[in-house]
Design brief:
The chain is of the alpha+beta class. The chain has a single domain (about 20-170), classed as NADH Oxidase, CATH 3.40.109. The chain is about 35% helix and about 15% strand. It is built from 6 helices and 4 strands. α2 crosses α5 (about 115-130). The longest helix is centred in the middle third of the chain and has 21 residues, at about 55-75. It is globular, with a radius of gyration of 17 Å.
């Protein structure tokens, strides 16, 4: 069994995936382990959408890219502005051509939705890593506004996308990038 320290060092953002399908049963196991994450008042607001169809993944990527470009055009100071040029590249897929994307979503009214779903996403990524899979939390893949496409992917109107996670077998695992020392403000 891998130690926790080794597991968190091995968990990297993967942006190059093998063209190999992940068995649905494995994706479902990872999701079950994700649901062991803590949540405020144990509300467990997370829900999951599994997308394995290449055509749908392209449509979701294209929808996000178009909406990101429109946002940048309407607000040149948008924090998304650094992505402007890559969003214009027709063959660029925001999900890095992963064979699977799992959306972690939840009801917009949930009090701690972002934090609870982020915890589930962390568990998801660690669970995937323990199985030799790679992940990348792709915030750029959350710009899905077309109501028809949202319905087609099974996303209820009152739900928000929190964490689109690309999932697949990594072509390679990058080294841990440099990290700053912890910033401990005070020990009392």
């Amino acid at each position: 069994m891998t130690t926790f320290s080794a597991l968190i060092e091995k968990r990297r953002s993967i942006r190059q995936f093998e063209k190999k399908e992940i068995p649905l049963a494995i994706v479902e196991e990872i999701i079950r382990e994700s649901c062991l994450a803590p949540s405020a008042r144990n509300e467990q607001p997370w829900h999951f959408i599994i997308v394995r169809d290449a055509g749908m993944l392209k449509r979701l990527s294209d929808e996000s890219k178009g909406n990101i470009l429109r946002e940048i055009e309407s607000n040149p100071d948008s924090p998304l502005s650094p992505y402007k040029e890559v969003m214009k590249v027709d063959h660029f897929n925001v999900f890095w051509d992963a064979p699977c994307v799992v959306y972690i979503v939840g009801p917009a009214h949930a009090r701690s939705l972002e934090v609870d779903c982020a915890l589930a996403a962390s568990y998801f990524m660690l669970s995937a890593t323990s199985r030799g899979l790679g992940t990348c939390w792709v915030a750029l893949g959350s710009y899905i506004k077309d109501n028809g496409l949202r319905r087609e992917m099974g996303l209820p109107d009152e739900f928000r996308i929190i964490a689109p996670i690309a999932l697949g077998y990594p072509q390679m695992i990058p080294d841990v990038p440099p990290r700053e020392a912890p910033k401990i403000l005070k020990v009392i």
